[in-house]
Amino acid sequence: MSETLIAELRVACPNAVVWDGAELASRDPGFDGRNFGASALVRPTDTAGVAGLVKFCAARGFSLVAQGGRTGLAGGAATIAGQIICDLGGLNKVEEIDPFARTAIVGAGTPLGTLQVAAAVHGLEPGIDLAARGSCTIGGMVSTNAGGIMAFRNGTMRHRVLGLEAVLPDGSVFSDLTRVLKTSAGYDLKHLFIGAEGTLGIVTRVALRLDPVAGASATALVGVPDAASAQRIVRHFLGQTGTRLTAAEILWQRFAAVMAKMLGYAPGQLPLEAPCLLVLGLGADSVDVAQSALEDGLAAIWEEAGIIDGLVATSEAQASAMWRLREETEMIERMHHLPPSFDVSVPGGGLDSYVARIEAGLKEIDASFAPYVFGHLADGNLHISINTDGPVSHALHEAIEDVLYEGLNEAGGSFSAEHGVGLEKRDAYERHADPVKQALARAIKGLMDPGNVMNPGKIISGP
Ligand SMILES: Cc1cc2nc3c(=O)[nH]c(=O)nc-3n(C[C@H](O)[C@H](O)[C@H](O)COP(=O)(O)OP(=O)(O)OC[C@H]3O[C@@H](n4cnc5c(N)ncnc54)[C@H](O)[C@@H]3O)c2cc1C
Q: What is the pTM of this model?
């Protein structure tokens, strides 16, 4: 991009930070090395600034890619030369928290962790949590329909958003900052932007529901023979009164073992020998109550669930060691370069048979394949990384997908649970999503963004 164009961008977006391609190349692109392939980055400070940038791009024929925290795992924020990044980092503000109505209005560039801290002052929380909380933004989470640790209880981002504001591809502003749960006033168009990965507009402000935060919490690591046993434990705690199950994360043995090794845990530091490990979070009025409820609850269901071993954390350090096992998943990337990774939803009680089937199917492709499997147990969302360096060939990737996605749609599951489609799952979308749904999506994209200004080539291929 010429110096003249960069200068024109500075004039069109007077209050914004503007970086050229050279500046971008010298910066950290976040979780995807392709994020900073663009020719320029513009960081406006408000909705009007975003609208000005969009109008400039629409008039000059540039395509625009919105970026928040750059923690996305589906390549949705990847850019190429000639494109311009709209960085939402300048819209980083918790504008309002209404403790009575339990709602928040936030700028799209606000990190989740910032909102969590601001809401906690009022005894509230956003009701959604994920390991990238320090960097991922509310706008990015809306745009990928993020799920995370608490989705089994509170739903995904789609269920937390009450209203939103977005700049459309022609620069006009869609404004629906509804703050009430009940509104039945025609088509609920905000949902078009949730999970759209920036292909239909740029989300600038969001109205969210908040929930009361538990006074304290306790963590346990429980060893079980299989996922069915872990699910029995979860049902038990969900049925308890006076406490609140806040997390139920599952780690298959191979994943837990490699994580413990990479994190440098001493042998025996945590009970990690069972075929499946369950990390449980329980909220209550005090730490003592939460710990006792975990101990008593596990004792009550020990035999029925076939529990092999278990440990209730007695210190924050011990709880943190349990959570690091589940959350510091970039350790897998230190073992393997760009390992092929997947994110599926498996319905009902089918987790054990699903894992057994994919273990066998992957071995048929390559006898050395042994997947790392972990995820959000209570909503059946499994993350799967293959123990090989990537990127693998297109044919091999498709063969792995065929094993992983076989029968999922028919059973009511999903080939993309919470990370989105972006570039990574675009082929899978074309092969596995309902053709009528795809045609409708293409028609909506054509109607809203005829010039293909917004994040072209993501989710839907071609112009
Ligand atoms: C360690 C780790 C753990 C994770 N755990 C989870 C998890 O448990 N659950 C889960 O759901 N995800 C998880 N993720 C994925 C990721 O954090 C989420 O997808 C997150 O929602 C992305 O937010 P972001 O601000 O980083 O978005 P980015 O990566 O910047 O962008 C993601 C997509 O959203 C678009 N976008 C960003 N901001 C806007 C905007 N304002 N308007 C329109 N489009 C926009 C981008 O164009 C891109 O398509 C994890 C990621 C990491 C690295």
A: 0.95
